[in-house]
Structures are given as structure tokens and as C-alpha cells.
């Protein structure tokens, strides 16, 4: 029996295997030489992009994003006589986006619903009656369908809206003293808005809906199509005729995106004593 080291089969295949391995190594080295520069450039570019994406502003810089909406509370004076009316005003400053918001929140006294009045001792003064207005829902016809809505208001980008309260005393019992006042507004934002359609358009859209749902065999598809097209032409005519009329804006309830809590600045008021009380104080001091 021959030794394994002298096996003719192994002696013949060994050079072939070595040649194959050597050829593979040579191709791999050439490939790596071609790929390495590209790989290094790719790593460098990814590193640069990564460093750009993770850059943050240093602490202390005033480069915070512009607020969605800001509110400011004001009053004409800082001191009021006894029984003198105390008017307040909220200025709503919109940011850089057009917003659809509830009419009742930005155009009525309901903006003052969450007002807080604090006396000199830091105690919150209780309100004698609420500052609210109803925000009724209404069904608006849109494309032949009834959509549940609330009345809306479009805050244009950069626009300012003001809301007034005639007299704070109507809602609070405020004896003489010093008071601090602030207000918080819960501002809901909606994605969509609808203009209340002209009554004639509502009727015509209902006619279209009835035609579309009609299954009478005598009403052929061609006749139905012609009738609907004619009604749509009437609708377009009415729209063009009344295009300059101001129509109420409504917000579909289901299009609510969310809400933002807006906190105002604080103002300080001094309410003076009545003249009779002031005389009593002088007499007491003089006595």
C-alpha cells in the first residue's frame, strides 16, 4: 500500500487547488484596491451628513421656533376708582401659518373663560358668574352630505385679532386693593373649513342626490347624466352670481387636529376705596 503523502491523486490535485486559491486571492486584492478609495469617500460623506443632522443650537441662544400663537392681556389703566368699569382686552397674535379656529374662542368674550384674578394675599378670587358663550353645532350641506360643524374663524398668518371684555366687575366682587390678572386660552385647531352654501345650492345638491339614488328603469343613465349636468351648471351660475357675498365659515367637528394652551402675561391693577370709605379712614387716622 502506498503512503498517503505519495498518493498520485492528491499529488495531481494539489497544484490545481493552489492555483485556484491564488487566483481568488489575487482577484480579491484587486477588488479591494478598487473599492477602498470609494469606501473611504462614502464613509467621509456619511460622517459629514451625520454631523450636520445632529447639530444643535448652543444653550442660551434665543433661536427657539416661533410660537404658533401668542396672546397678550391689557387694560387702559393700572388704577381704577370705586365702581369704575374695568375693561380688558386680549390681543391674539398669529404666527406664520393660516389657522382654522373656533369663532367663539377668538371673537367673543369666551376668550376670557379661564381668566384668573388673584388678590394681594395670593388668593384666587372666586367668580360670581361664568364668562361663557354657547358654541352651537350646525349641520352644513357639503357635496350633498350633511356635515356636523361649529362656526369657525380663519386666523391668517401674521394677523392680529383682539377680543374685549367690557367690565371685569360684572363677573367679580372686587373691593379696594391690588389684584393680579392673567388669562389662559385653550385654542382648538382644525384641518378643514366649509363655507355655508347658498340656500338654492343646497336645494339643487339635494336634487342631484335624489337623481343619483333613483333606480327607476324609465330613467335611463343618459337622461340621468344630462339632468345632473344641467343642475351642476345651475349651481356654478349661482356661485358666480353670489361670489362676493360673505358666507359664514364652519369647521367640521371631525377635522379637529388638536389644541394649544396659550398663557398670557400678568397685569396688576389697583382698585381705590370709595370716597365715603376714604373719609372714614381719614377720620380714624385723625381721631
Which characteristics define this entry?
alpha+beta; 287 residues; single chain; five-stranded antiparallel sheet; 5 helices
Rg = 38 Å
Strand content: 25-35%
CATH topology of the domain at 75-136 and 153-183 and 261-279: Immunoglobulin-like
In total, the number of strands is 13
What would you note in describing this structure?
The protein has 287 residues and is α+β, with helices and mostly antiparallel strands. Among the domains are: 75-136 and 153-183 and 261-279, Immunoglobulin-like (Sandwich); 197-246. Helices cover 34% and strands 28% of the residues. It has helices at 8-53, 103-107, 199-213, 221-241, 275-286, and strands at residues 69-74, 79-80, 88-94, 99-102, 114-118, 137-142, 145-155, 160-165, 177-190, 194-195, 249-252, 256-263, 267-271. Strands 2, 5, 9, 12 and 13 form a five-stranded mixed β-sheet that branches. Strands 4, 6, 7, 10 and 11 form a five-stranded antiparallel β-sheet that branches. α3 runs antiparallel to α4. It starts with 7 loop residues before the first helix and ends with a helix.
Amino acid at each position: 500500500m502506498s503512503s498517503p503523502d505519495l498518493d498520485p491523486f492528491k499529488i495531481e490535485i494539489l497544484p490545481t487547488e493552489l492555483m485556484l486559491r491564488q487566483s481568488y486571492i489575487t482577484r480579491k486584492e484587486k477588488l479591494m484596491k478598487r473599492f477602498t478609495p470609494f469606501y473611504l469617500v462614502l464613509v467621509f460623506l456619511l460622517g459629514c451628513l451625520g454631523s450636520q443632522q445632529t447639530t444643535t443650537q448652543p444653550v442660551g441662544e434665543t433661536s427657539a421656533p416661533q410660537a404658533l400663537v401668542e396672546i397678550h392681556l391689557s387694560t387702559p389703566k393700572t388704577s381704577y376708582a370705586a365702581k369704575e368699569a374695568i375693561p380688558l382686552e386680549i390681543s391674539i397674535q398669529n404666527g406664520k401659518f393660516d389657522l382654522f379656529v373656533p369663532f367663539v374662542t377668538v371673537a367673543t368674550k369666551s376668550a376670557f373663560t379661564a381668566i384668573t384674578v388673584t388678590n394681594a394675599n395670593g388668593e384666587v378670587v372666586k367668580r360670581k358668574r361664568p364668562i361663557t358663550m354657547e358654541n352651537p353645532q350646525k349641520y352644513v350641506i357639503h357635496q350633498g352630505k350633511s356635515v356636523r360643524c361649529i362656526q369657525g374663524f380663519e386666523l391668517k398668518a401674521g394677523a392680529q385679532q383682539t377680543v374685549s371684555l367690557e367690565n371685569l366687575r360684572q363677573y367679580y366682587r372686587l373691593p379696594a386693593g391690588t389684584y393680579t390678572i392673567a388669562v389662559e386660552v385653550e385654542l382648538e385647531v382644525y384641518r378643514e373649513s366649509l363655507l355655508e352654501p347658498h340656500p338654492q345650492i343646497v336645494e339643487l345638491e339635494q336634487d342631484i342626490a335624489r337623481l343619483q339614488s333613483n333606480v327607476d328603469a324609465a330613467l335611463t343613465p343618459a337622461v340621468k347624466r344630462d339632468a345632473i349636468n344641467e343642475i351642476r351648471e345651475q349651481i356654478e351660475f349661482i356661485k358666480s352670481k353670489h361670489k362676493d357675498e360673505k358666507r359664514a365659515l364652519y369647521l367640521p367637528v371631525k377635522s379637529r387636529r388638536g389644541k394649544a394652551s396659550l398663557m398670557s402675561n400678568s397685569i396688576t391693577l389697583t382698585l381705590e376705596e370709595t370716597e365715603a370709605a376714604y373719609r372714614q379712614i381719614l377720620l380714624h387716622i385723625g381721631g
